[in-house]
Design goal:
With 138 residues, this protein is mainly alpha-helical. The protein has helices spanning 8-25, 49-64, 68-83, 90-109, 113-125; strands at residues 31-36, 39-45. The protein contains five helices and two strands; from the N terminus they run αββαααα.
């Protein structure tokens, strides 16, 4: 997704790998304890799923928001992650937030109304809230 490499195939593979990594992260709590004989020995604090997802998606959106195929792939990723079991219902809120942010960027970056409508239709079909106005203000 680097601006110097125009290879959507590599970007799609990268999104596939990220999908699996995010899927694994959904299986863990924000904080975890290592216990021995009922006593907490170590408290493990990790980066929150919300922060992790935002930090990774912020850069991906920069390079993908204008490419309809990559946006579709990201929506497939979010659909998959939403359907996975997870340790914390807040993870679903994080996914919804990122979908909303992606749709805002698409709406503001893509000039073709047909493409924008197709992306919003796909997002709705996956069960994501798309209450944004489809038309851009000039």
């Amino acid at each position: 997704m680097s601006p110097g490499i125009n290879d959507p195939g590599t970007a799609i593979n990268g999104i596939d790998y990220l999908t699996e990594l995010f899927s694994l992260r959904l299986q863990h709590k924000e904080n975890d304890l290592i216990c021995k004989e009922g006593k907490a020995l170590i408290k493990i604090k990790t980066l929150s799923f919300d922060e992790l997802l935002y930090n990774i998606m912020a850069s991906i959106r920069t390079y993908c928001k204008h490419d309809i195929i990559l946006v579709q792939k990201l929506l497939v990723m979010f659909k998959y992650l939403k359907a996975r079991g997870n340790k914390d219902n807040r993870y679903l809120d994080s996914i919804e937030k990122e979908v909303h942010t992606l749709l805002i960027d698409v709406k503001n970056s893509v000039s073709n109304s047909r493409d924008i409508e197709a992306i919003f239709k796909l997002a709705r079909s996956y069960g994501f809230e798309t209450n944004l106005q489809l038309t851009r203000k000039l």
